[in-house]
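# nightly structure sweep
# worker-07 picked up a monomer target from the shared queue
# config: single-sequence mode, recycle default, output format = structure tokens
# input follows
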Amino acid sequence: MAENNLAKIQFYEGTDEPVVPEIRLTRGNDGTTGQAIFIFEKPQALSSIADGEITGMRMIDAEGEILTREVKVKFVDGEPMFLEGTYIWKTKSDFDRFMRFANSYAKSNGLGYSEKK
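# output follows
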């Protein structure tokens, strides 16, 4: 499927992030609210941090773009080491849209899915 090749994440518009993150999902008891936490270790976006300000994380696929502004840089011994992006959904349709992106991104990057019991 060609659309799977389109799934990508960007911190700077037009520049794809090659580092694949660890992604953790949590959902509320009713299943309609929750969040996805993306943890990028030594992402390329941090090597260009002086060239521009990271103002968000764009999740792009064949359907379009999902944007979150919740992005933090984590430092280890004074060096930027991790980028953490958090996407929060508040409706079932937002969650369904996010999961379509996540599945496409996973296929694009050869990732699997495991559920905590």
